[in-house]
């Protein structure tokens, strides 16, 4: 039976947008939402110029062209003259590969050859204004010193992925003009090992280059992992949060709400509008399964070591901080609490192995043991009670969230591999159990969620959690009352975090 009209997906660019998690193609609806952030009089200005420095499908240039075709009708009543002006004097792009160059030209010019008979506007060259300038990595040892690409991985590839925009090719020089708008969806990362076990983010390099060109507007869609830093992103994070020219950020905690269910970007996705003459607070818009929340605010909360992603959480954080309590993170161990990697699995028998080792349940459900002498670090913890929790926990498909795996008690004469993190070491069992009662509360796990953008849960994600008196057990009702939370604040916490049973 034929599907209803609303279920159809007739736009090939919508289909193409669902194909990849690495170089993600932008759906037209998302491209248009990004264009909506710009002053709309740009699309009535015959002198406005637009650059996509990382063309893949050509969707941004296509959607810009649609708006200009309508907006410039009073200026160019003749349709063909209008099209010629738009495509030849206003729209420009750098493709990222040979394939995407053809796809983008087909999308924008209605043919992959801009000098062909079927081009919507006839150029003298087959490339038109969508170029693939030759560029090369700049090798320094085993890495490209510009993008961090691995010589081993990329030197022998047909496509080197030495993207022109970030490898020394200046579009203002190539096209001989200053751009008003730079817009795009850059590649997110490059593998930096031959087994694809590690990747270096590069989207930040595209944003930095775009801002350095100082156009009137930059609009880009990028992973939101930069909110909490990450590999090679500390300087980028600092630059962005302190740049008052950031006018708007639209944040999707779950990237599937933006791109669709086929594309899952760890840490979520965001797009932003940087405006050269903007100063002051930023319009920050949360899009979650609960709906949309928008407010105008400074991006960094005074006195908080970390970015508060959810607008509705700000009032909760302020109430917690008013009490000036120490952070629970003081109890939390570093990675590898006992210096043991995940490769250390211990033995199934206790012969000459007097310490139980907790390892990943994905490896074995059997009890495992290790000799005390083989525990390289923090042997003083071995004979005390410990609260353990998985260091990684991901569940973006399970809204509302647990945020953390279930904590559990590790008895004296025990240790763990780096699969787990230690949430405190205690002299008696009752205190450890009281700590676990706190960890299980929605209040505790909500505060963790605020700093936990990926499945990884190191010590830093516990910074916002306040310390409690662990001579007693804790419930959410007691914590809500202690911090004076309103019904609305409680409802928000409970809409984001599901209860955790004992």
From TrEMBL:
Pfam families per the UniProt record, alphabetical: Eco57I
InterPro entries: DNA_methylase_N6_adenine_CS, MethylTrfase_TaqI-like_dom, N4_N6_ade-DNA_methylase, SAM-dependent_MTases_sf
Reactions it catalyzes: a 2'-deoxyadenosine in DNA + S-adenosyl-L-methionine = an N(6)-methyl-2'-deoxyadenosine in DNA + S-adenosyl-L-homocysteine + H(+)
Domain Type II methyltransferase M.TaqI-like: 89-259
Biological processes annotated in GO: DNA restriction-modification system; methylation
Group of enzyme by EC: transferase
GO molecular function: DNA binding; site-specific DNA-methyltransferase (adenine-specific) activity
Keywords attached to this entry: DNA-binding, Methyltransferase, Restriction system, S-adenosyl-L-methionine, Transferase
Assigned EC number: 2.1.1.72
Domain of life: Bacteria
Protein name, as recorded: site-specific DNA-methyltransferase (adenine-specific)
């Amino acid at each position: 039976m034929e599907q209803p009209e609303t279920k159809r997906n007739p736009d090939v660019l919508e289909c193409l947008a669902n194909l990849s998690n690495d170089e993600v193609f932008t759906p037209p609806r998302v491209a248009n939402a990004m264009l909506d952030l710009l002053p709309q009089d740009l699309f009535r200005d015959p002198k406005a110029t637009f650059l996509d420095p990382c063309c893949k499908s050509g969707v941004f240039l296509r959607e810009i062209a649609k708006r200009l075709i309508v907006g410039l009708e009073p200026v160019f009543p003749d349709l063909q003259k209008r099209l010629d002006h738009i495509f030849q004097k206003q729209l420009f792009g750098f493709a990222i590969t040979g394939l995407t160059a053809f796809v983008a030209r087909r999308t924008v010019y209605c043919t992959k050859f801009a000098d062909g008979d079927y081009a919507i506007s006839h150029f003298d060259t087959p490339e038109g204004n969508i170029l693939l300038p030759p560029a090369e990595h700049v090798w320094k040892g085993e890495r490209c010193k510009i993008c961090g690409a691995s010589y081993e991985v990329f030197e022998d590839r047909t496509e080197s992925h030495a993207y022109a925009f970030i490898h020394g090719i200046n579009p203002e020089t190539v096209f001989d003009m200053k751009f008003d708008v730079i817009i795009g969806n850059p590649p997110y990362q490059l593998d930096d090992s031959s087994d694809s076990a590690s990747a270096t983010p590069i989207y930040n390099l595209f944003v930095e280059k775009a801002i350095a060109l100082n156009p009137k507007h930059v609009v880009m869609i990028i992973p939101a992992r930069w909110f909490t830093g990450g590999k090679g992103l500390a300087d980028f994070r600092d630059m962005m949060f302190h740049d008052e020219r950031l006018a708007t950020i639209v944040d999707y905690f779950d990237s599937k709400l933006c791109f669709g269910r086929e594309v899952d970007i760890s840490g979520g996705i965001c797009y932003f509008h940087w405006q050269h003459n903007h100063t002051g607070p930023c319009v920050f818009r949360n899009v979650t399964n609960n709906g949309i929340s928008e407010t105008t605010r400074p991006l960094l909360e005074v006195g908080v070591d970390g970015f508060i992603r959810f607008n509705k959480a700000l009032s909760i954080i302020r109430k917690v901080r008013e009490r000036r309590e120490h952070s629970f993170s003081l109890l939390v161990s570093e990675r590898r609490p006992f210096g043991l990697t995940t490769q250390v699995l211990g033995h199934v028998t206790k012969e000459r192995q007097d310490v139980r080792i907790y390892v990943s349940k994905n490896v074995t459900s059997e009890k495992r043991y290790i000799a005390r002498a083989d525990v390289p670090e923090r042997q003083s913890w071995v004979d005390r009670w410990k609260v353990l929790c998985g260091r990684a926990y991901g569940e973006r498909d399970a809204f509302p969230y647990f945020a953390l795996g279930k904590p559990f008690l590790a008895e004296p004469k025990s240790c763990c591999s780096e699969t787990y993190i230690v949430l405190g070491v205690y002299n008696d069992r009752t205190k450890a159990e009281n700590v676990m009662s706190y960890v299980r509360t929605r209040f505790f796990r909500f505060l963790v969620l605020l700093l936990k953008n990926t499945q990884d849960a190191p010590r830093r994600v516990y910074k916002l959690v306040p310390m409690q008196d662990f001579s007693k057990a804790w419930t959410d009702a007691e914590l809500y009352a202690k911090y004076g939370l309103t019904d609305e604040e409680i409802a928000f916490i409970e809409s984001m975090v599901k209860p955790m049973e004992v």
